[in-house]
Amino acid sequence: MDKRNIQLDDNGQLRHFLTIEGLKRQLLVDILDAAESFTSVTEQTVKKVPLLRGKTIVNLFFESSTRTRTTFELAAKRLSADVLNININASATTKGETLLDTQRNLEAMQCDMFVVRHAVSGAAHFIARHAAPHVSVINAGDGSHAHPTQAMLDMFTIRHHKGEFHKLRVAIVGDILHSRVARSQIHALSTLGVEEIRVIGPKTLIPVEAHTLGVHVHHDLRTGLRDIDVIITLRLQHERMSGAFLPSEHEYFQLYGLTEARLELAKPDAIIMHPGPINRGVEIESAVADGPRSVILNQVAHGTAVRMAIMAKAMQRLPNLSARELH
Ligand code: CP
Questions:
Q1: Pocket test for ligand 1, best of 150, 178, 274, 304 (most atoms within 8 A of CB)
Q2: Ligand 1 pocket check for 71: Cβ under 6 Å
Q3: Which of 60, 63, 67 most suits a substitution to test ligand 1, by most atoms within 8 Å of the C-beta?
């Protein structure tokens, strides 16, 4: 994969949003602050601002999605953009058209932004590298590589509930190896300066290079959860596993499932997060997922405002954001 930071234009402004890696702390804070403003838009009677009026945004989802695709569509509509949702299963992709040809045809229709989800790591980077000069690309999840907008809505949720990042200990529990969400969260948490990041899971589901990301690795959930402020649990990503990584889901739950009893090990006010979709009884029990400390649905709710902020920033509409434009 091309390691150049192609996310910024010649003036250092955000053009594509492909990965958190390499982005400056201030940019992440600007996005979180802008999302705060957009939250008020989502609470108005008329939930719309004209920032992206006249722009056309294409949702290109080659992999299934509930939360991400829907909140991207909502975010684009709330910014007054026109939205095209491409049904990949009914598109010319099924007749052998390449990704590049699909992109070129959509660009010929004067589309301005592609929101891309793909099972192959690097797919969004590929589209960004070949994009016409006026086009921005947002990565909505590529293979096991990155899911940067999910990480940003997670950071928004953490800041909303916990305040400053630098005092926080955050644990990410589960299938770190196959998780694009975990990778993006680790980069975001580290850039925003949290006190400690722990990853917890069986040896088979923790990448061997985890220590190079500045995280503490735990294989025992009990030591890993001790004195933790934020617990992020992840599902087992069976669709990306080739081979046997676990004896059984039952055994996984016995060792790593988040239960009310195990929450006692964390701080009393620790919050529970999950990017979804959740698998009840595998990585989390229902009493925890639906319990008072769970902020799982708050994450989903924040997704729209955070994606509005990222889309507006990539289209370079945030610097001129005025109170009049927001209300
Ligand atoms: N968190 C997340 O990416 O969910 P979806 O797969 O439903 O978009």
A1: 150
A2: no
A3: 67
Residue 217 has pLDDT above 80, yes or no: yes
Atom of ligand 1 nearest to the CA of 275: 1
CATH code for the domain of 312: 3.40.50.1370
One-letter amino acid at 95 equals K
Give residue 2's pLDDT band: very low, low, confident or very high (50, 70, 90): very low
Is ligand 1 within 6 A of the CB of residue 275? Answer: yes
3-state secondary structure of 271: strand
Q: Is the pLDDT of residue 189 over 50?
A: yes
Residue 325 pLDDT: 54
Q: In the prediction, which pLDDT does 245 show?
A: 74
pLDDT tens for 76-114 read: 999 999 999 998 888 888 889 999 999 999 999 999 999
Residue whose pair of structure tokens reads 């669709």 in the numeric block: 239
Cβ-count burial 32-65 (b if 16+ within 10 Å, e if not): bebbbbbbebbeeeeeebebbeebbbbbbbbbeb
Q: In whole numbers, what is the pLDDT of the chain averaged over residues?
A: 93
CA dist list (Å): 132 to 2, 114, 164, 293: 18, 11, 39, 45
- Decide: 67 in ligand 1 pocket, CB within 6 A: yes
Residue 148 has pLDDT above 70, yes or no: yes
Please tell me the distance between residue 188's alpha carbon and the centre of ligand 1 in angstroms.
18
Task: For residues 158 and 295, state if they share a domain.
Answer: yes
Residue 312 sits in the same domain as residue 288: no
Instruction: Please give the single-letter amino acid code of residue 81.
Output: A
Q: Ligand 1 pocket, 65 CB below 6 A?
A: yes
Residue nearest to atom 3 of ligand 1 (CA): 68
Predicted model pTM: 0.94
Q: What residue numbers bound the domain in which 174 lies?
A: 148-300
C-alpha 254, offset from chain centre: 28
Does any ligand 1 atom lie closer than 6 A to the CB of residue 70?
Answer: no
User: Quick one: 11 and 94 in the same domain?
Assistant: yes
Nearest CA to ligand 1 atom 1: 275
